[in-house]
Structure formats: structure tokens, C-alpha cells
Amino acid sequence: MAVASVRPKRRFRQPSVIPGFGLTLGYTLTVLSLIVLFPLAALVVRASGLGLSGIWEVATDPRVFSALRVSFGVSLIAALTASVFGSIVAWVLTRYDFPGRRIIDAVVDLPFALPTAVAGIALASLYAPNGLIGAQLAKVGIEAAYTPVGIFIAMVFIGLPFAVRTVQPLIAEIDREVEEASAILGSTRLGTLTKVVLPPLIPAVLTGFALAFARGVGEYGSIIFIAGNLPYVSEIAPLLIVIKLSEFDYAGACAIATIMLAISFTTLLFINLIQAWSRRRFGYV
Amino acid sequence: MSEAITPSDFPVADAGLRPPASVVTEKGWVRALLIAVAIIFLALFLVLPLVTVFVQAFAKGLQAYLAAFAEPDAHAAIRLTLVTAAIAVPFNLVFGVAAAWAIAKFQFWGRDLLVTLIDLPFSVSPVVSGLIYVLVFGSQGILGPWLLAHDVQIIFAVPGIVLATIFVTFPFVARQLIPLMQEQGTAEEEAALTLGASGWHAFRTVTLPNIRWGLLYAVLLCNARAMGEFGAVSVVSGHIRGLTNTLPLHVEILYNEYNFVAAFAVASLLAGLALVTLVIKSVLEWRYAGDLAASARH
Fold this sequence. Notes:
heterodimer, A: 285 residues, mainly alpha, MetI-like fold, 13 helices, globular, B: mainly alpha, 72% helix, Sulph_transpt2 (chain B), ABC-type sulfate transporter activity (chain B), transmembrane (chain B), cell membrane (chain B), Sulfate transport system permease protein CysW (chain B)
């Protein structure tokens, strides 16, 4: 939550009687630099050694290109699905009271808590041709495991909590009086929902979508077991990084990693823009 | 909106017949439908995979389940996972508290940028998180030749696993505490200092009790991720059985060897950890909602 802050005038920090500023900030900056910034810089240095043309060359390699396309394309569809159902889940959990609501609310965080490898093998065994769901899908002619459909399922699993948890607090904060006013002024419930209730939720839904998308693109553990990892078909970009590394092709691994980092930072920027827009338009994030 | 409004448009007209709340919610059947959609979706996508882990683990009976833990490799994996979490979690705890103190209790230039930088590891793919450590410490890495000359091994050894784990769990404690401590302000610490407490004393007796539930919450989530991390650890581990395999990596190896019962048995241990984490987390949220509030609203 943004705390209204007075901008210090050309002073590094505002005076305070609280001690420990130098110590804690110094420690924070040192650890941050050693653990996060320095290793990330190593990647940037490596990638800049390749140059834009070098990165382009790797990216346009057919196998790399199709892996990137699978990662980004499937993640986009999965994030869309997670957003739609996540919004319904968030609405149901905040607005309606029914038995077991709290337990279901807790279940939403399962993908955060369950190790990705565990989720991965569980999904793979469920959706395999002889698995519980896979067998049913096979009857209607859908092959889930070892195809992009399997990647989609894993990405929905991993992205769902982001979609739910970003929307939920905003639904809780909706002013009921506005809905009453809308109803009293003669709007139908559907009209109230689409014209009064939903528009202020759009920024949160977009943020949840972007977070789920970014997570899906980078996800590894829960996908590789169900994906089958067929080059050109169901091979994801993170797996290709692992493969390049095991072949000691550091340049190739760095190039793919750089492309993925660039996209995830763009997504981050996109989220910040949505939130800035939402602050101006609706007065809150 | 220019049409004439007839009296029948007013839901108020028969307000005496139905509770006033009905104008701010959906019709009964719509509610039932939405609840059904939500429950079926969650059951299918989230609960079923969890149940599968336990069903598959016990598919061949208790004997086969227990046999998975009799292996020395499984013991080694459990030990390494515990050691990794025992280093990474306290490390991030200390960092998180220090960072939150500096960021929440003081106003300084570049504070927002600092918060963004601390959050960075959450937006990096786990595989890339592992890769960057290989680029620094690997044999072809920046420090590679120096490490080789001094016979220090980090990649494909325990230190690399610990470092990668610290990286992926880096933001947990800080991002939980910063909004909480910002909301609490500095008045109580200032009072303690005015009354003659030393800075450390004020922190221990005033700040720490204020943030304890938020801190416990963050440590819980940090620990779950530290013990369960797969992608980043997989890249730096080298998969040496009995030496650099954590529990999630052990699960992968067993699964790829088609030893499904053992894979799911070991996975059930991690799923149990996830369940315990979720239960404690939910209890904390229900009981201490106020003490976690600042972050819960985030």
C-alpha cells in the first residue's frame, strides 16, 4: 500500500531518530548485490558478448524458435483460461457464503505450496493415456499428455493462484452502495455487473493475467513430465536452456535466457503501467 | 438512459416482499451455477493432482511405500533438502528483516527501486536462476578458473544448491514484512527510544512482537519453496545420486526410471509438507488476519 510520502529535498534520506539505517541498508545492498545483481549481471555480460545479431541467430534457429513459440503461445492461452476461471473463483469465494468456502479458499494456494516436480508427476499420471482423466479424454479423441495440451494444463495449474489472488481483494473492497444505487436507478443485475462492478476490476484481472503469463513462460518443473518434450512440438524454452547447458553450449543457453528475461521484464513493466493507469482512473491499484 | 422510467423498474416497489440484499447479488440459480463451476474447476485442476500423489504412492500397498524410504539415496536426499532449507531460510530471514527495517522505517531516495530489485527473483524463470549461477561459478564461468585453482567446487555441489535456493526464495520475507512494517510506522519504536531503550532493545521488544505473525507466515512460505524448488536446483546440482540430489530431484530420477511407486512415495512426503504449510498458513490468516493485514491486502 502506498504510504503518502513527503519527497525529501535533495537529501538522500529524511532525518529520523530510529537507529540502524546504515547497518541495515548496507547489509541489504551488499546481500542483494552478491545474490541477485551480480549473477544477473553475469548473464547480461555474456549475452552482450553475443550481441544482438548473435541472440537473433539463436532465436531464429528452428528448434529454439518453436520452443519459444510453444512457451509463449501456450502460456498466453493458459493465462487467459486461468484469468477467466480465476475471476469466477475469486467472485464466488468473496461474494457467496456456502459450506466449505474457507477450505476451498485455502486450496487455491496449493500450486504455491506444492513443489513443481510433485505437481508435474501427478499431472502426468492423471493425463497419461491410461490415467484417470487421460483415458476419458482419449475416448473423445484428445491427447493431453505429451502434447501442447498437457503443457496448457500444467500452466493453468501454476497460474491459477495469481489470477485469483490479485482479483480477490478488489472484489472484497467493492462498495455495495454503488451496486444498490445502480439497481435503484433501474439497472438489471447483469447491467450493474457489466457497467458498474466489472470495469474497476479490469486492471486487477489484467495484472493477474500478466503474472500468470510470466509464471507460465518460465515454468519448468510441473511441465516437463507431462509435456513429453518432443522437439518442434512440445518442447518448452526453459527445457531447451537445460539441454544447451548439458551440451556446454553456454552461448545458446544465454541467448534463450536473455530473450525470456526481456519478455518477463516487459511483462513486469506492463503490470506497472496497468497499475499506474488504474491509480489515475480508479484511484487505487 | 433516456427511456422513461416506469414504476415497475424499481426493485424497491416490492421491497417488503424480499430482503434488500437481493439487489446486490445474483439470482439463486446463477449463484449455484457459479459456485458449481468454481468448485468443479478447482477440484479438477488442483485437488485431483494432490489426491493422485497419495493414491499412486500407496498403489502397491504400505510395504512398497515404506520401501522407498529405506534406500540410502532417499536418506541422502532428505538430509540435503533439510540442510539446504536450514541455511537458506535463516539467511533470507535475516536479510528480509534487515531490508524491511531499512525500507519501512526510513524515507530515502531510491526506495521504490530497491523494492523492485528485491522482487526481481520472482520474475526470473527458475531455470534462468540456476543458469546465472553456472555463469558465475561454473567451470566456464567468471570465477570458474579462480575456483578451480583453489579447488573450490560450487556448481554440481552443495554450495550451488544452497545459493540457487537462496535466490529463488529471496523476496519472501522482505516483501511480506515491508508493507506490514510500513503500516505500523515508527511511533512505537520512537517511544521506546525516548524512554531510553537501545536500538537493538527496541527492535527486540517492540518491533519483533509486532511483526511475529507476519514473520512466521513468510518463513513458512519461504521454507515450502526452499524444500520444493526444482528448476533452479536441477540446473546447478549435476544430479549426483546420494550427493547432490534434493528430494524433488530424487522424485524426478525415480520417475524417469519408471519406479512410480517410489517416486510418488517420496513426492507424498513433499505433498504432506505442502498440506501442513497450507493448514498453518490458513490458521494464521483466520486467527491473525489483523497482524497480516497490510500484506494480505497486497
